[in-house]
Amino acid sequence: MKKTICAAFCACMMLIQAAALPAMGPLNAKSAALYDSSGQMLYELNAEEALQPASVTKIMTLLLAMEALDRGEVKLTDMVTGSAYASSMGGTQIWLKEGEQLSFDEMLKAIAVGSANDCAVAVAEHLAGTEAAFVERMNARAQELGCTSTTFINANGLDADGEKTFTSARDLALISAELLKHPKILDYTTIWMDTIRNGEFSLANTNKMLKSYEGMIGLKTGYISQAGFCISAAAERNGMTLIATVMAAPTKEARTADVSALLNYGFANFAPYAPDLSDQLKPVPVRLGRSLSVDPIAEDVGGIVLAKEDMAGLTTEVKLLDAVDAPVEKGQQLGSVTVKSGDEALMTIPLTAAETVEALTFGDIYREFLRVLLMKEHN
Predict the structure, then answer these.
(1) I need a surface site. Which of 12, 196, 234, 236 has the fewest CB within 10 A?
(2) Which of 37, 83, 87, 115 is catalytic?
(3) Orientation angle between helical segments 104-112 and 117-128, nearest 10 degrees
(4) What pTM did the predictor assign?
């Protein structure tokens, strides 16, 4: 059943993307993408080209850390010990010493706010034993998310002269969308300035757009000379969260300009949409069930957005089964809602059973027969 719903949702996304998009102005970066937080593509420029992401790599490190937290494999109060290897990282760091311990919470703060390469490796080692084992998890998770241009070689994006990390603007958007499913991450990515080590070490967010762009909530910047200026930026306005990824921008200013252009384009031309089905969904009769009917509900497919120009004159077409045989499983598909603009289908949302309805047993049927028979004799 989940596979059926997933397939219907994917078809829905394809229909939305097929709609004509407004024109987008020129960008400075080599590659860029604009997605909404559900993973729906709104705009792409060379978005599948494999490029070096620099420290934007850390969004995958943070995603795996958030998922480990949610599974209860680690707590924010757990102490993480810096290894000799972690403390040897160059680039942006907090100068972690071998044997030094910081809480998992402070490690995440140092990664998300200060882009600390040493802390990224320390967290990787804490979660997987070695950075190499953690990188295997990173690549496996990327494949699960549908990333097609991604190969991670480390936890921080600090590439040496040998192997290089590669990903794409599209893949970064997909990883970022998954990261945003963990609201706790915003406790870190929205920090402007903070401290660790009992106030002895100051952190300043590398994403300066937190102060310059309305609604900015993160996520991660990156730069090394081979990669250029990169970013995965998320912003929220009017109930809609958008993700702009930029890779290989020539300067920091060009990166900022491209992110602003992408997000402005998104907020100007798209808006969240959910059809009003309050008066359109009727109970579906259940044959030989312990309940006579089951209520259909619209499957939650996430924050769907549509081009504003497509919203005028939208209609909804509801299709429900005439009846369904018991037993009925909660989540079982009962029909669908198709949103149309004229004759063009924009999206299809599955309608599923709100609750389980068990089938009548022989004993249930016999008791009902006796009840009806007694009522007739009494009358």
Answers:
(1) 236
(2) 115
(3) 140
(4) 0.82
